Every structure is written in structure tokens, then in C-alpha cells.
Amino acid sequence: MALTLVLMFSFVLAVTVNGLVFYPNGNQPISYQVPIKMSYVLNVFNVTKSENSTKLLVETAFINYNVIDLNGTWVKVNVNSNYTEINNISFIRPGNFTVNYALSPLNLSYPYLYPGFMSSSISYAIKSNVSTVILGYLNTSTNSSVNGNTYLYNEYSPVVAKISVFDFGVVQDIVRNVSGLEFNMRLVNYENSSVLQATNFTDRPGYLYVNLTYSNYSGTYVPSGYVEYVYPALLPGNILLMLQYNMQEIEGAPMGGFTSINGQEVNFIINVGTPFSLTTNFLIQNSTGIYWNSIPLNFVGNIVKVVQGTPYNLSEYIYKNVRGNVTFSRLAIYASKNLIVEQEYNQTSPSPSSYKLELMNGSYIDPNIHYPYLTGYQNTTLPFKAINPSESFTIAVVVTLVVVAILVILHKR
After folding, report:
1. Are 245 and 268 in contact (CB under 8 A)?
2. Same domain membership, residue 220 and residue 150
3. Considering the domain boundaries, does residue 308 fall inside one?
4. Among 164, 197, 230, which residue terminates a domain?
5. 35 and 136 housed in the same domain
6. Using CA atoms, how far apart are residues 61 and 184, in angstroms rounded to an integer?
7. 200 contact partners, CB below 8 Å, separation of at least 6
8. What is the 3-state secondary structure (H, E, C) of the chain?
9. Cα–Cα distance between 158 and 180 in angstroms, integer?
């Protein structure tokens, strides 16, 4: 019932803050550019913190970035700088570097943030197999020199810094404090590449699944939550952006909910990788076989199966985790043209557990939609005075007792 209520509101447009959406949606391919030349001035200050904090400029240097080659999301870049180490702190290193701007965003060897990574969330993560960046949106300012917006973020991981970035991805400022020194890196000029184009990975904005957990008490699978897979874009070089929302049904709160990473709570995680390496809701087929989450699957056969009220012609695949002669777990996947329709997992050791994921066909919930208030009355503009439930209950009880007393007296007479 609760989910039905939410689906009724799923047509509402997501609220944006200065053009930034809070929770990323699926199917958001954009045209974008990456910088091929950037020049920065680096000012280093000695910061003394006492009753009155003081900053003393101790070095000024330049940093120049020149892209040698661009292939997919891989950038080969030459970094040239006259910065000399202070207190053995290597803030920037000159040389040639190969950086993937999607897998390693905001890398100091190539300071750039793909525009699809930008959000108005106060805490979110961009995660790949090589880096995890945690950001928190602070505010937006209008920048007339670039005819657009500049977004200010706190970076919480892997380093602590304040970063301002143009809405097209070029970093304008980086301020980082290390061992009593403040490094302030400010953009002087830049040159962008020709236009690049992201594409859609699927033809739907998202895929909603109901999570079913086996109950020993009822002997059946019972709903324990909803999971939604969302794919904002597929970048050049087959790099996929994916989010997995554990939908939250909290009154007045957005459906996208929250999660955690590296011990820190975040609203969401943008997972970045290839379709083969990420845990998607699709099977990957290549010349060596069928895989899910890099796990090789064995084909069992074709089957007609009804899932959440919808009949499907499905292919069945299994994977068994066997050690010695003992099967520790069994995974069964039922797919339609590589789309997972049902996934069933059974574990026998170290403790028995079982769950299912079942596709809710045709359903999608915008994670920015707020779950409706189901308790408490929110309308304060009624054309009549609302009845107080507590007072009404008290009056009803009193009146009932009076009526009963009168009837008893009349009966005795």
C-alpha cells in the first residue's frame, strides 16, 4: 500500500538548486567538454592559529597542464610547475601522467569534475576501483566571466579541501590545509576540448525491485524493502555511471534515502566502472560466457515464470559456491534478454539465510520525490474548523456514560 501511494506521486518534477539535482536520475546523457590546457597560480601561506589567526605568504608558483592525448575517459597530461617543496610537502609533482577523469575525479594531476557528478547533496560519494571521493555541496555563485555558475564543495575524502568548480567541470579554486600550510590554487586560464557526448546505457530511467527475505516464522518470503537501479550515463570508453538506491519510506523525506561509505553517512554513491565490473541488474555476455558481478554463471534452461504478477519467458542461470563437497551458497538468476527479472540467493553456511529480488515491471520512482505525510494533518487552510480528535473522543465517552446511566435509572424504575 505504501509503495502504491508513492508511485502516485512519481510524476512530480524533481526540485533543483541552481540547476543541480539532489539525487541523480537515470538516462541523463549530456554533451560536455574536458580541458586540454589549464594554468593555475599556487599561493602557499604559513597559517598561525592563536587568538588572532594570521596568514603569511611564503611561496608563489605556477602550474600548467597540457593534454597530450585523450582516449575515451583516459587523459595523458603533462604537468609543469616551478613549485618547490616546503617542509617536505609535495603538493604537486611535474611530469607526464595518465589519468582517468571518470574513475579518478578531481585528481590533482588533472583537476576536473565531470558535470554529471555534480549534485546539491550535502554529502555524497563518487566511487570506482581506484578512488573514492566524498563531496558536500555548499553554495552556488553566478560567474559572468564564463556565463554560468560556480559551485562550491567541501571535499571530505580522500583529502580535506574546499573546491570551487565551473558548471562545465573545470576547477576554479582548490584550498587545502596541510601541516600548518594553506595551499591556494587558482585558475588563470583554460582551453576546452571539442564536444564529447555521453549516451544512455538503457532505455528506461530506472529499474525498481522488491527485496523479499525468507521468514522462518511464516515459512514464506516477505517484503523487506525496495531497491532501484539507476544509470545516469555511459561515458566514452564504455565507462558506466550507476546508482543503487535503497528506497526509504520516511514521511516527508526524499525516497532516495541514504547509505554509508568508509564509515561516513552519505545520501548516495555514484558507482563508476565498466558494465562488467559493476554490480548491475544486467547479465554481461562475452566470448567466454555469461557473467553477473564478474561471477561466471551456468545456463540451466528456459522457463516461463510469473514475477510480481507479470508472466515472463526467462533464461535460468545458477552459480554455486562449493568448497570440498559442501555447498555454502547458491545463486539463481532468471533473466529476460540479460535483464535480471528475479534473483534468488540461498546460503547454508555460516548461517542459513535466503532472499529474493523481484522486478516490479514498469515501475520507477524518482529518488527526489518526497514520501507523503501519512500521519498528522498538514492542511491549515480548511474552510471550517477541524475537530480535535482527543476532545471528540472524550466527549463521545462522556456522552455514552451519561446515556447508559439514564437507561439504568429508567430500567430500575
Report:
1. yes
2. no
3. yes
4. 197
5. yes
6. 10
7. 27, 29, 231, 233, 234
8. CHHHHHHHCCCCCCCEECCEECCCCCCCCCEECCEEEEEEEEEEEEEECCCCCEEEEEEEEEEEEEEEEEECCEEEEEEEECCCCECCECCCCCEEEEEECCCCCCECCECECCHHHCCCCCCEEEECCCCEEEEEEEEEEEECCCCEEEEEEEEEECCCEEEEEECCCEEEEEEEEECCEEEEEEEEEEEECCCEECECCCCCCCEEEEEEEEECCCCEEEEEEEEEEEEEEEECCCEEEEEEEEECCCCCCECCCCEEECCEEECCEEEEECCCCCCCCECEEECCEEEECCEEEEEEEEEEEEECCEEEEEEEEEEEEEECCEEEEEEEEEEECCEEEEEEEEECCCCCEEEEEEECCCCCCCCCCECCCCCCCCCCCCCCCCCCHHHHHHHHHHHHHHHHHHHHHHHHC
9. 19
Of 410, 400, 390, 365, the residue nearest 204 (C-alpha): 365
Number of independent structural domains in the chain: 2
Question: How do residues 119-155 score in pLDDT, each as one tens digit?
Answer: 999 999 999 999 999 999 999 998 767 778 999 999 9
Query: Smallest Cα–Cα separation from 35: which of 191, 210, 171?
Result: 191
Q: For residues 211 and 213, what is the distance between their CA atoms, to the nearest angstrom?
A: 7
Percent of the chain with pLDDT over 90: 69
Peptide bond between residue 24 and the one before it cis (omega within 30 degrees of 0): no
At which residue does the C-alpha cell 437507561 appear? Answer: 407
Angle at 245 between CA 170 and CA 370, to 5 degrees: 90
pLDDT at 321 over 60: yes
Question: Within 10 Å of residue 296's Cβ, how many Cβ atoms?
Answer: 11
Same domain membership, residue 115 and residue 83: yes
325-381 confidence digits (pLDDT tens)? 888 899 999 999 999 999 999 988 777 889 999 999 888 899 999 888 766 655 555
Q: How far apart are CA 116 and CA 102, in angstroms?
A: 10
Based on the fold, state whether residues 35 and 60 are members of the same structural domain.
yes
In the numeric block, the cell 597560480 is attached to: 41
Asked if residue 203 is part of any domain, the answer here is yes
Q: Residue 11 pLDDT > 50, yes or no?
A: no
Domain assignment present for residue 291? The answer is yes
**How confident is the model at residue 4, as a pLDDT?**
45
Q: What percent of the chain has pLDDT over 70?
A: 86
